[in-house]
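User: Fold this; tokens only.

Assistant: Input:
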Amino acid sequence: MPAITNDQFSLWAALVAGLLSLLVASGTGFLLGLWLAPWWQRRQFRRALHDLSIWQNKLLVELEQVESKCEWASRQALRQFPIDRLSRLERVRNRLVASLETLATIPAERARNAIPFHVEWITGTADPLSGLPNRASFDQNLKLLLGAGQAANTVSGVVFVKMDRYESGIKRYGQAAVDQLWQRLVTLVIRASRDADLICQIERDTLAVLLPNLAAGVAWERAESIRETIRTHHFLLEETSQEVVVTASSGFTTCLPEDDPEDVISRVQKALLRAESQGRNRLEAE
């Protein structure tokens, strides 16, 4: 039997190593696929809800524009359509009426069985500086929000709002001055929120806003409105009247009926970290 040369041995060793690497990679990919599949499906579903809500809003805007144009045309003196266009107009009208009736109709059985969304917040212990419910109260109320969403089969939103450069602000202006800026930021968030929303202070530089019974797209717009309200405000130091630039990074997620509190908190924290890592003064969703 001929002896195996060093080159042949190296070739066989490389082939075996490559085969083993391929098997390990395939097995790892398969296991990761099994582990990530449920998470990926939930994420895609949340994105679909967000995109659907945006599409619905755009559709309503376009319909309102068409309504306005038709109303304007009906008031004009020369509003008579030619015969060929009149026939076309009739077909469009019939199809539009049928489509709108389908969109606006809720099955009677579903309406009878629907449970109205209802949640009663527990204020609990307040933060000594802001007077807002603290982290423990947030955890309690998040469970209530998810329970109400499951009962009514509706979605809600959660947004974390973190004051940018909080620690560096303390070093530069002092704790008392930053506390004043923080209280002003809290006031702005309260004003930008609805009466139905609950605002909690979960860290000394972070607020959590619960947005009950809001579609994903609408909740996102509310979260963006909060961020923009902070960005455009002129913050002043009380002692010197010096203007200070204050911004906030925000993370947003949608609460689905099948969610649990740990998943919601994990998602919104990831979104907040991404907003901070990408330059601050941003709103990111997970």
